[in-house]
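not sure who needs this but someone in the group chat was asking about GntR family transcriptional regulator from Falsiroseomonas oleicola so here u go. i didnt clean anything up, its just raw.
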Amino acid sequence: MTSAEGDAGESPGEAAYRRIRTDVVLARLAPGQKLGLDGLREVYGVGIGTLREALNRLASEGLVIAEGQRGFAVAPVSAEDFREIAELRLLLENEAIAASFAAGDLDWEGQVVGAHHKLAVLERRLLAGEGADASQWKQYDREFHTALIAACGSVALLETYAAAYDRFLRYQMVAVVFRGAIAAEQHAVLLESALARDVTRAQDLLRAHVEGCVHHVVEGGALAPFAATRRRARPAPALAMALGR
């Protein structure tokens, strides 16, 4: 689940914005892909004006780029951008960890333990070579990291972190990255640190966790297929067919 997902009572325009945002974050719409308004209208079932409004909102978030008279495209990816987003995530998450660990109560501990349990179960399945849905795995990963900072006491910090996390998540979904046992072990240590209220250990571990992911993606060449011209970016098959690609 990304921060783009809303509720059933929202307006058609808000629903379209959230659907497009989720498709970008989960890499169903590929980096660099042109976003033709006529094709999008068929896929998302809203008018051109509503789509323009949604795409402009996404452009302000750095997930889409406006190309003037040429329309819109999904924001490209690069190693430099990924590193910058990773640093922003670390800045926000480490600040929130310190506040959350200080204020967290027994209910907060229970939420952290529960979130980690779901994540650990899915990680064990992935390590055993069993099939698992990538979006569900990343949903549980997100829920765990969000639970760690949930007691920080700042709505603004949590909202800013959620936006930064989604931009980081997009890179993980583009690269389909699972670093195996090391990531699972780091999550377990983060849980231990939270229950022990060991802020320094958690912050040091988080930096290793995030920087390890960046290194894995960049050095492994996962972004290389998207470094060519936007024309070559390929959307997911169902969206490609709907958008006439």
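also The longest strand covers residues 64-66. if thats useful
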